[in-house]
Amino acid sequence: MDFFYVMMPIAGVKIFWPGLVILGLGVGIIGGFFGMGGAWMVTPGLNILGFPMAFAIGTDIAHMAGKSLISTLRHGKFGNVDYKLGVIMIIGTVAGFEVGAQMVMWLERIGQVEKYVRWMYLILLTLIAWMVFADVAKRKRKEREAAAKGMEVDKLATGIEWYKTFHKIKIPPMIHFKEAQIYCSAWLPIIVSFATGWLAGILGIGGGLIRMPALIYFVGCPTHVAVGTDLFEVMISGLYGTATYTYKGRTELVAALIMLIGASVGAQIGTVATKYIKGYGIRIAFGLAVVGCAISIVLKLMARWFPNQAYLYDNAATVLILGLVAAMSLYIFVRMVQGARQEIAMKKAGK
């Protein structure tokens, strides 16, 4: 079985390399589809496979940067990227990321990084899952109420509409974002990006896990534009984060390259899939993936609480995170193929 393990020269640990391939390919598909680097799955996944948390964070950011570049270019062709919004958000993203990265280095020095990062992940995933499913429930209620009146709900409308409150804040400069179809204070995306950048630096994510929902619920972007614009931000923060963590000696480039091979293919699939799966189809799948990821972290924590059953919980966490990535990737791929076939059939019928 030694064939399936490879020594990581910087981290100094042996890693199950097929697990890296599954994570790379699967998260490439998921990242391109949801509009994020997929680090919300990969950082816990790398930690579960055997990387110390600081190395899991740095390695994931390195792999994420290259994959997000590919996805951003593809989304740009579909008109899903609001570059003006993305450029403005870079200000807050970079500043917040550096603050978060410095906090990780401090937690590592006092030996508490594993504990605090896992608990922050768990709390964050729980809050996001609640927000997504609360939004879906409110949207369905609006649809039922509209149907009873013989009307239809706007396709771009959301269940949770916090952004309407934030849009009432008129602090100059006020900017119109064409692709996102919103008009708001420039300070709104800057503050949102700082908060997401800070969490990205701490948790080793490109910020997509929180930025994509934030763009929808706080800034007011349509889902497909939030996906593309977020990937643009993930690319920028990922490149900056790679440089930061590599300088700090916490990036395992061998693992990042292994994952990037599969991720570059998966990103193309996931991005094209957004053409056929719109709006709430994306959000529901996203919410389910977040719940599964949270459960895997709980299992990893239980391995520490109950050391006699640690082997059982560790294996269960590994199977769950890899199974989740594989299942979500298969679902997205199948829906993409179905949508493509339907599109081809309609074109033939039109002829």
Describe the structure.
This protein is mainly α. It has one domain (2-350). Helix content is 75%, strand content 4%. The chain contains 12 helices and 4 strands, in the order ββααααααββαααααα. The chain has helices at residues 17-34, 39-49, 53-77, 83-109, 113-148, 162-166, 187-203, 208-219, 223-247, 253-273, 280-305, 310-350, and strands spanning 5-7, 14-16, 174-177, 182-185. The strands form 2 sheets. A two-stranded antiparallel ribbon has the order 1-2. The chain has a two-stranded antiparallel ribbon with strand order 3-4. Helix 10 (253-273) packs parallel to helix 12. It is globular. The model has no long low-confidence stretch (mean pLDDT 78).
